[in-house]
Design a protein that fits this description.
The chain is mostly helical. It has a domain of 32 residues. It is 81% helix and 0% strand.
Length: 67
């Protein structure tokens, strides 16, 4: 009886790092996708505000330093 518990415990420990690794990879993938979307949104916002400030005669240098 004690032997089976040890084997079961060993298998659980052996399996769990893979599960953790998979979920970690998924998390990284999701984070990367979010960053890409955020980056695209920021670029869009920066270009549109640059256009807007150019239309208003500001020269369009407002967000160049940040982007």
């Amino acid at each position: 009886m004690a032997m089976t518990v040890i084997v079961k415990g060993a298998m659980t420990v052996a399996e769990s790092p893979q599960v953790v690794k998979i979920s970690e990879e998924k998390k990284q993938l999701c984070l990367r996708e979010m960053k890409e979307k955020d980056k695209a949104l920021r670029i869009t916002m920066a270009t549109s505000s640059r256009r807007l400030s150019r239309l208003l005669g500001g020269g369009g240098y407002g967000l160049d330093a940040e982007a």
